Amino acid sequence: MALTLKGCCMVRPNEATWCGRLPLSEWDQIGTITHVPTIYFYHKPTSLHTSTIINTLKDSLSRVLVPFYPLAGRLHWINNGRLELECNAMGAQFIEAESSSTLEEVGDLSLSSEYLYHLSPNVDYTLPIHELPLFIVQFTTFKCGGFGLSLAISHAIADGQSALHFINEWSRFARGEALEMVPFLDRKVLRAGEPPLAPLPAGHGRSEFENPPLLLGQSTNMEQRKKKTTVEFFKLSKQEVDGLRNLANLSWGNPSNGRGYTRYETVAGHVWRSACKAREHKNDQPTCLGVCVDSRCRMKPPLPKGYFGNATLDVVATSLSGDLVSRPLGYASSRIREAIEKVTDEYIKSEIEFLKNQQDLSRFQDLHAMRSDKGPFYGNPNMGVVSWLTLPVNGLDFGWGKEVQMYPGTHEFDGDSVLLPGLDTDGSVVLAICLQVDHMDAFRKHFYQDESC
């Protein structure tokens, strides 16, 4: 894919904002602290010139960075693998590019990861972290007149809900509307910057922070890291999702709490089982599924409305592959629900306390860019299934209509997957998944054929 860079600038808040250092919460400083991209594709508006669209985006961005001023700042290392946020109004980066392709060539579910890689901002993580903008926009014009808008936000500053809060407020400003919900910026509600309350008991540990299982007979994951991967998108209609939910609810006793299994618990369980079959695990192969849980309404009291930062935490569902494959879908869903239900107010506070007691947070962080062979690895025999099903990822209108397609950016690690709501808000679900090339055909077969069993 031929791509030409046409320009690059920093967009700063158009009014004076508070400047100074802000502590980050423990949730901000673990897991992925690199940038997470999303890509939106638009047809060219008939009544607007491209330069007008770009100016509108830059002007509205400079205005929305006033209430969301942390995104105009920079990260700094302090000590022991910990970070602080310097609010200094340095701004967000805006990149303009031009592609020799057409929107029709890239804007469907067969889009390759190579296309996504070029359409996403290239962040150089070899630079000092304080030189990296926290929000980067890449505006790519296609030869047909359509364009792509890739938005990359540092995960150390915002989780999915906070990132979409910002992005949707930006689109409101571009349409000439007022701020709908003021961001709540005080991370001290999650004890940001505070010392631990008490030392941890000897031998105290957390399974969520331990290394995931390895393939039986292997002492490292290096062989699996080197396997070539590919990304594909799979769509389930509302009728197919409903069928899976019925199957899960009828196949494994009564779900806990008297509630039927959710879309996420059902589809994630189906993905987990299909991956185990495609990978041809032995029956006694331990496997885990990483689950990302939003703590906002699970805390007592709940976090303030509009909390801006990371409020999600990872838990793991565990099983033997043989149990997942031989037992009905409802078993996999029950394992996922069990992991999610651990996330209570007491559990969240104990997790924060565990992290505050760590002398160094480095081992819990992924600092590496895509395509690196370093950092955490959660591939075969494990999976991660992140849910964007309840997030407002679709319908991003800056004043010239909604997108014609949206992608969750580059996902190139084996076992990495995201569940998205269908573009037409018709109850369908789209799975974006990365697996080893050798496993993808078998996964496709199991994902679609087993569903009808």
Characterization of this structure:
This protein is α+β, with helices and mostly antiparallel strands and 453 residues long. The chain is 26% helix and 23% strand. Helix 6 packs across helix 7 and helix 7 packs across helix 9. The relative contact order is 0.17.
Rounded to the nearest angstrom, the distance between the terminal CA atoms is: 41 Å
Work out the number of β strands. 17
Largest sheet composition: 6 strands, mixed
Q: Could you tell me the mean pLDDT?
A: 91
Helix content: 25-40%
Q: What structural class do helix, strand and pairing data support?
A: alpha+beta
Overall morphology? globular
Strand fraction: 15-25%
Rg is 22 Å
Spell out the helices and strands N to C. EEEEHEEEHHEEHHEHHEEHHHEEEEEH
* SS field, number of helical segments: 11
Q: Which stretches are poorly predicted, pLDDT < 50 over at least 5 residues?
A: none
**Strand order, sheet with most strands:** 1-7-8-9-4-15
Q: Concise description?
A:
This protein has helices at 50-64, 103-106, 113-119, 160-174, 222-225, 238-251, 263-279, 321-326, 329-341, 345-356, 437-449; strands at residues 3-11, 20-23, 31-32, 35-42, 74-77, 83-87, 92-99, 135-141, 147-154, 229-236, 286-294, 312-320, 365-366, 383-387, 405-407, 416-421, 429-436. By secondary structure, the protein is an alpha+beta fold. The longest helix is centred in the middle third of the chain and has 17 residues, at 263-279.
Tags for this model:
453 residues; alpha+beta; 6-stranded mixed beta sheet; 11 helices; 26% helix; globular
